[in-house]
Each structure stands twice: as structure tokens, then as C-alpha cells.
Amino acid sequence: MSQAGPILFVSDAQRPAFVAALDEARLFPVVDSDWAGAARAVEAVQPAAVLAAMHAGHEPHVTLLARKIADQSPYVPLVALNAAGMLPHNALPFSSRGGNPDRLIARLRAALRVRTLHATVLRRLPEAKVTLPAGDPARDATVLLIGRGAAYPALSVALGERVGVVGALSIEAAAKHLNTRDLDGVVLAEGFTARVTDAFLTVLAEDTRFRSLPVIVTAHQLAQTYDLPNLELIQGEPAKVAANALPLIRQHAMEAQLSRTLRSIDAGGWLDPRSGLLTTEAFARDFAKAVEQTLARGGGLSVARFAFDPNNSRAQLDAARILSRLMRQMDFGAAQRDGSVIVVFAETDFRTAHMIARRLSAVMRHTSNGKHEMRSDPVVSVDSLSPSDTARSLLARLSADASRAAS
Question: In terms of domain of life, where is this protein from (predicted)?
């Protein structure tokens, strides 16, 4: 795989064989640096990615190196090899078990695809009416936590302090979440046999939808290799597992954010890069047009409003992401400034719309986090267009119905 820059390898020791294999294969030209000169080497070499061997003695330099890499644009992945303790926020963990260079190549290729996507977005932004969402992409990430052992509650809290968490006590429940939600990582905790873990990882690896998903295993040694570039074994206290899993989760959330931004650019800026739904302006335009056309030619049009606690902005974002994934192609929606999400069901009567809205709200109820915010239970109101309606009157009636339902 070609990339605009070499790989910088940081270590105070000789290259291990699996890193030397990258250079020998001529897939990734590798430049060496010791820890003392690592930050300067980033400026001089302008690497596409950095591999850092986290052995004793790196501690005085790792924070400076991580900060220097975080300031680079486009995205420069930092892969931390065989880290024993807590990692910097942008250091992707990598355990070189078995010394197999294929795993490292797969990890690098997955990370460099995110770099390429970032460069593409930066190149196209000046010509578009779109702004790349600011802040840490991890704040919008959602992780599926699967487990049923004693460590599950502590892991749920440790992860929930950093990202949104969807919990599953069984592999069957986890499969439902994988099929209905946009996830930025999976944490497979204790409570399952090695055979069940192997079967689950095999199924993930065989499904192209989950090929790049970060998968963190906390309770078992891995029995074999899997075609999952971002699969990592992280053991230890829940706080360490959460902190060291976060960089992989953040990278996936960044990739998803960049992909939504590209779709927004392609749509002329009418899609919201955070939610994947229409912007409020585009929604108002399309809704007025849909009401006008339905009244002119007949047919059905229904609207559902999902209202959330205004103090829990994360619930609104999760709902918008779910709707952008699950709603039909002919439907459209937007996150509103009052904390609600509105979706329009084209050619749909009230009864069918009510059934669809009920199913969607059931999916929304499963996200929680460790900051004492409970599950996202929306107040749902549904209404249909009548011959005397305008777009404004239908939305006003929908909001009034929601207020009565909440009180």
C-alpha cells in the first residue's frame, strides 16, 4: 500500500523482526528514531504513521511525542507496540504476540485508510458549504459491551465515562445491536467460554460490515488469527481496559465522522455530518415540499417526533444516528434545536407510522453511560397530514401532542 510518507519507528533497541519485515517487503519504508529524538523526527520525516516500542525508558518522551503527532494534519496514526500501562489518548494499542507482521500490516492499512479519508475531506472542504465537526470524535462514539461477569458493571462505568455504551448480556442480544446500530467498537468481556468467543469473532470477521470495527477482548487469549485488523486483547483493571481501548474507538468514530462529512459534501451541505440526517434548514425545505405535493396529489404522509431530556444531548444524537441507519430511503428527518428528532414517513398512514415509531423507540432505549444518565427513553408522538394542514400546523400539533404525552 502506498502512502504519502514513510513509517517512523521509535525505539531505543534494535528493530524487532516483525517491524523489519515491513521494510523488507517494501510495503512500508521504515525510518528509525530513538525516543529522545522522536518528536524532532516527526517534524523532519513527516511520517504517514508512527510505530513506538513502549519499553522501559520511554516515559519521559511519550507525552511529547503523542502531542506532536496529535497536532499533525491530516491524521497520523500512532501505534504503541506492547504497552504495559496506560496509553496516551491517541496511541493505538498493538500486542505483537507471535511476532506476525501480517497483523501489524493489517492494523497499519486500516489506520492509513482513515488518514487518506481525512486528507480527502480536507481537500474538498474549501469548495463545500460544510464544516468538519469540531472536538473529540470519541464524545459521539458508541460501544457495544458484551459480558455477564463480575467485571461487567465496572467496565460499563469505565467505558461510559468516555463514550456511549450499549450493553448486552448475551451473544444473541449483541447480534441484534450489531444489526441495528452504528457502533464504534465492541468490548467482549468475561462470562463466555473460549469456544463462544472464537465463534463470535469468526462471525464478525466473515461479515464485511464489521471488518474494520475495533474489537477488544478482555478475558481470553485468542485461539487463532482473525481477519479483524483492529482486534486487540487488553486485560487488566476496567479503567486500563477503557483507556487503552479508547484510541481504537476514537479512530473508528473519526472514520465514521469523516464518511458522513463526505456524504454531506456530496449532498451540497444539506446533510448534518454529526447525525447523518438532514440539516434543520434542509428538513424545513423538504418537509414543506412533501406536504405541498401530498396535498396536491393525495396519498399519506405521517410524522413522528422523538423528544428527549434536553439535559441529555447525547440521547438525541444516538437517536438521530439510529434513524439515519434504519429509516427507509423514502423517509427523511432531522435533529431539532429543542433536543428532539423528527422523521417524516412518506406514503404512510397513521397506524403504520405509529408501529414504525414504536419499533424505532425500542432500539433507542438501550444506550446508557457511566455519568449517571439513564437509558434514552424518548417521548414519542405521531401524527398524520390532514387536508386542512400546512407544514407548520402539522409540526405544531405534533409538538403539542408530545407536550401532553410528557406531562
Answer: Bacteria
